[in-house]
Specification:
Blueprint: H1 19-23, H2 27-34, H3 49-54, H4 57-77, H5 79-82, H6 91-101, H7 117-127, H8 136-152, E1 162-163, H9 169-178, E2 185-190, H10 194-211, E3 214-216, E4 219-220, H11 232-235, H12 238-244, E5 251-252, E6 265-267, H13 276-290, E7 292-296, H14 308-321, H15 326-340, E8 345-349, H16 354-360, H17 368-380, H18 393-398, H19 406-415, E9 423-427, H20 439-444, E10 448-449, H21 451-454, H22 467-479, E11 483-486, H23 491-502, E12 507-508, H24 513-520, H25 527-537, E13 565-566
Parallel strand pairs: 2-3, 2-4, 2-7, 3-5, 6-7, 8-9, 8-11, 9-10, 11-12
Antiparallel strand pairs: 1-13
């Protein structure tokens, strides 16, 4: 049977196409590809002949192949956004587990375990990443917030004050004979913590100058509380100390053989705030006669109001001669560099140890149980309470005599504009109540570290069980900070206040506890109004130049202007 010629026109033609391309096509594209087009009539006009080329299956196969190939190339080059890169293969899944289980804490940002420290840093950076903001209003709010944050790190106007230790001609002439004298020697025994010992060493040098005697390297009394047996050269750079003071007072490591058998005249009753005239009238004849004078308990014994040259000598000792020993300076500077490696940082000196609460007559406020422990110890050892024993706890609190606890420090910092991502170094002993006592701070400011957090394994081991050395490390990191704030007064806070002023009036926040605490107790005060009031109270307490002449009886090493700093064309720096 003969077949019709038209039967062939109803048959389908098939071509082989890769499955990847087929999957990427729509149904309409597939139909146009699989159905073989009818032959065009030769009667069609010439101007449509080019269109028939686009109806060719070969053309579409080539086109789709190129389209798919280019698409796969683009996909390959854009894998980065789809698959986040991490140098640690398990980071992404582990991070999710850490977050879900609540283990991602701020103190993990720099791990004490050396091999995991970088991985933990990755966790911390991811957990604090912020989403992109496209809203105009949100951008405006962020701009305001960034301005407030930068304001917190802004340094006070130092009014051009610079170190100015030019001594009088009379002082310099007298120095020639004083440093050559080998007949009179002063021995001093200094007590207390490291910062208290610093103050006494400063006064010891000045007293030696007043008596025109050589100073034997001060003896550091073993601290009964801390049990630290460090010697002078363990904490301070002895050779530097001698060199800086070579033209002021002769410093010797020990008594010479001519005086070694001499029984020193011992004096324990130096009155508070003794003047140079009193010291000469009391001790000069005795030291000339015996050759050796031994002084103990110099804390606050020397008057704060001295002649100009002696005030400059005080500053010279405190800010130039008393440099920490190289090992301490080395580890302290390392920790400071680690804190500053990601931008500015704040240093807090927290006084929240158990003995501080007992001695000040204050309560930690953690819970009734902790308050009862402090009260009981104070009852058992009433001699620990330092002054104003007739005041109740609440009276002390409102008078500004109590250390700030962690919640109060947190509220103060927030009111003053400290950003939530601020890096904070906290100095001081372990707080009574442990980590629980610090929760308000760590909850609001997660980048919260102390020296143990920053040190690598074994770095602090040479200094273990040496409280004075640990205090020196805290001092170095705190002094190098962009902003410093103590939670309570004390020797370290006062020393750093003067040191930062002498360094160009670096920002130092002095909490106005007496005036601000009533607002802390007012729970009905809106947060915005509270912040405004706190900022207003502290606008002049941020480390601006503060003349000691307006603060009679204050230590020049705390207020070095104007005796040790000046801002006119006659400025002479001692460097």
């Amino acid at each position: 049977m003969a077949k019709s010629k038209n039967n062939n026109t109803n048959k389908l033609s098939y071509i082989s196409v890769p499955s990847q391309i087929i999957n990427s096509l729509s149904s309409s594209s597939l139909q146009s590809l699989l159905l073989s087009p009818k032959k065009s009539s030769r009667s069609k006009t010439r101007y449509l002949s080019w269109f028939t080329n686009y109806r060719s299956p070969k053309f579409w196969v080539l086109f789709l192949f190129l389209f798919g190939f280019l698409g796969m190339l683009k996909l390959g080059f854009n894998l980065d956004p789809l698959i986040p890169y991490s140098p640690y293969p398990c980071t992404t899944s582990q991070l999710q587990n850490l977050v879900s289980n609540g283990y991602l804490k701020s103190h993990m940002a720099i791990a004490s375990n050396g091999e995991n420290s970088h991985q933990v840093e990755v966790f911390n950076s991811v957990s604090h990443s912020q989403p992109l903001i496209s809203s105009g209003n949100l951008k405006s709010e962020v701009g305001v917030e960034e301005a407030e944050q930068s304001e917190f790190w802004k340094q006070p106007d130092g009014l051009g004050y610079r170190p100015c230790l030019a001594l009088s001609n009379e002082y310099n002439k007298a120095s020639v004979g004083i440093v050559k004298d080998k007949t009179k020697y002063l021995i001093v025994v200094v007590s207390g913590g490291m910062n208290q010992q610093r103050n006494q060493i400063v006064d010891a040098v000045v007293i030696a100058r007043i008596l025109e005697a050589a100073l034997v390297v001060p003896i550091l009394q073993v601290n009964v509380i801390w049990g630290d047996e460090s010697e002078f050269s363990d904490i301070f750079d002895l050779e530097h100390f001698k060199k800086v003071l070579a033209n002021d007072v002769r410093i010797v490591s020990s008594l010479p053989s001519t005086h070694i058998m001499t029984r020193p005249v011992e004096e324990k009753r130096t009155p508070l705030h003794a003047s140079p005239n009193w010291i000469r009238s009391r001790y000069l004849k005795r030291i000339k006669r015996e050759g050796v004078l031994l002084l103990r308990g110099l804390d606050s014994r020397l008057s704060k109001d001295l002649p100009s040259d002696l005030q400059k000598l005080r500053c010279k000792v405190a800010f130039h001669a008393l440099r920490f020993a190289p090992p301490i300076l080395g580890i302290g500077n390392k920790l400071a560099e680690r804190m500053s490696s990601k931008g500015p940082y704040l240093a807090l000196h927290l006084r929240m140890e158990k003995d501080v609460w007992v001695r000040t007559g204050c309560l930690p406020g953690l819970s009734p149980e902790y308050d009862e422990i402090v009260n009981n110890e104070r009852i058992q050892r009433p001699e620990l309470l330092t002054g104003r024993s007739n005041m109740t706890y609440h009276e002390r609190k409102l008078a500004g005599l109590c250390p700030l606890n962690a919640l109060e420090v947190t509220r103060l910092l927030k009111a003053l504009g400290a950003p939530k991502n601020a890096r904070i170094y906290w100095a001081g002993g372990h707080p009574f109540g442990g980590k629980e006592a610090l929760l308000p701070l760590t909850g609001e400011f997660p980048h919260f570290y102390n020296k143990e957090d920053l040190a690598l394994p074994g770095e602090l081991e040479p200094f273990s069980n040496r409280a004075s050395v640990m205090a020196a490390i805290d001092y170095i990191v705190s002094e190098n900070s962009d902003v410093f704030m103590p939670s309570h007064g004390g020797n370290m806070g006062h020393a750093i206040q003067g040191h930062r002023a002498y360094a160009g009036h670096k920002k130092y926040i002095t909490p106005d506890k007496r005036h601000m605490l009533p607002y802390f107790l007012n729970s009905s005060l809106p947060e915005a109004e509270f912040n405004r009031i706190i900022k207003e109270l502290h606008k002049d307490s941020l480390g601006q130049p503060d003349l000691r002449t307006s603060r009679a009886g204050k230590d020049v090493t705390k207020y070095p202007v104007p005796e040790c700093m000046c801002n006119d064309s006659r400025t002479h720096s001692y460097l």
